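The material for today's practical consists of a large collection of protein records. There is nothing in a record beyond a sequence line and a structure line. As an example, a complete record with its sequence and its structure tokens follows:
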Amino acid sequence: MENGTLLAAVDLGSNSYRLEIGRYDHGLIQRVEYLKETVRQGGGLDANRHLTPEAMQRGWDCLARFGERLAAFEPANVRAVATQTLREARNRDTFLVRAQEALGFPIEVIAGREEARLIYEGVARLLPQSKERRLVIDIGGRSTELILGQGFTAHTLESFRVGSVAWSQKYFSEGQLSSSAFERAEVAAKAILDEALAAYPRKAWDCAYGASGTVGAVADVLAANGWEGPSVTREGLAWLRDELVAAGHTDHVDLPGLKEDRRPVIGGGLAVLCAVFDLLQIDTLQPAQGALRHGVLYDLIERQGTDSDLRATTVAGLAARFGVDPAQAQRVADVAGHLLRQLRGDSRALRKLAWAARLHEIGCQIAHSEHHKHGAYILEHADAPGFSQPELHRLGLLVLGHRGKLRKLQVGFEDDVFVQQLLALRLAVILCHARRDPQLEGLRLMRRGGALMLQLPEGWVQAWPQSAHLLREEVVSWQKTPREFLLQE
């Protein structure tokens, strides 16, 4: 990546939307601009987990403003991620259609553990480098992430469905603040976080850090009210809880350092933070400068270098875990890439096709019969660091579609890139069916009008009759889709 390149990260959080723009400079990112808007979308989920029209409109309006700022950016230099609220929302697809139009870029709904990984990367990048073992905590609007790591590497990641917005709505309804409400809220949070005790023992970390959201708000209040900062301590939390109870209602809370947008959710956030302190035996928590959006920016840098892309490491790990035949996987990847390059030189499309090829037999560990279906299921439900849920879904579709009938994909086949990737993968599997290197010399995959056509050299059919038979069957398979595949013998 060239020095001076502008990168942008958009974080669609449950409480706030954030836009971070940075300039790449010798491996580091220097802040250019930071925008934050309190959208409070997490509070717009109804009892059926549908976003209300008002909550969706707030999000669309904010993203339109962000989109205007990002209009001149290259697509490869922008990444937008959505977290717990959109993970939960049953009508998220309705929201995302207009949201992506407003922003002008794709929006990825990331899994909880992927959110945790990116949070840790953002925190670690903005901390001095050391060998200390770190516990990182991020209490968001509807989820809390806990991470153990060292250096730039996260070792233990988890996301829990407990957060400042959700807990404020549930236990401090109508803004009422009382000792009994705090007690109920903390007990409920501990009930959810209890399972973290085994994975995050006190002996496993040297220093605890709090990222963004609630921790930053609490640290600001304590510092503004004379507490020795910037640390958050047990004593400070107890004092703040007493102050909120004394106020009795969020409308009556008047504390230096408390921002207006935090006032409605401070009760829920504080209750969760107190629960985390008790369960994990934390005495002091250091506010961290880094956050999810910073992790997204540094992940963008890694994604543009094939050697450092975490997704490639994840693919290799999945292939090893499920006993994929490495020789056959590489053979299919090489052939599929050779064919796709004849249609397009898009490095990102080629990279993702190679991942699908390396994982196309991942389901054989479960059963060889219908292994493509097992493989797709694994990818749809796997913890896959570096991948967003839409990316995993698309990867799963390629694995599902690498053999058999095409109708099972239930896609419209309008996406040219996907269709070309899918055809290249299916042809590669056919050509490598004997699990040996095929004869590719003279084979040309090309566009012919609105169709795709594979041209075979003279004598190829006679030399490879079984492959030719399978290719003819592939022509028939595509006849049952809106796209056409031709074979010129």
In short: The mean pLDDT is 92. The chain has three domains: 6-110, 127-288, 305-440. The domain at 305-440 is CATH 1.10.3210.10 (Hypothetical protein af1432). Residues 56 and 102 are 12 Å apart (CA to CA).
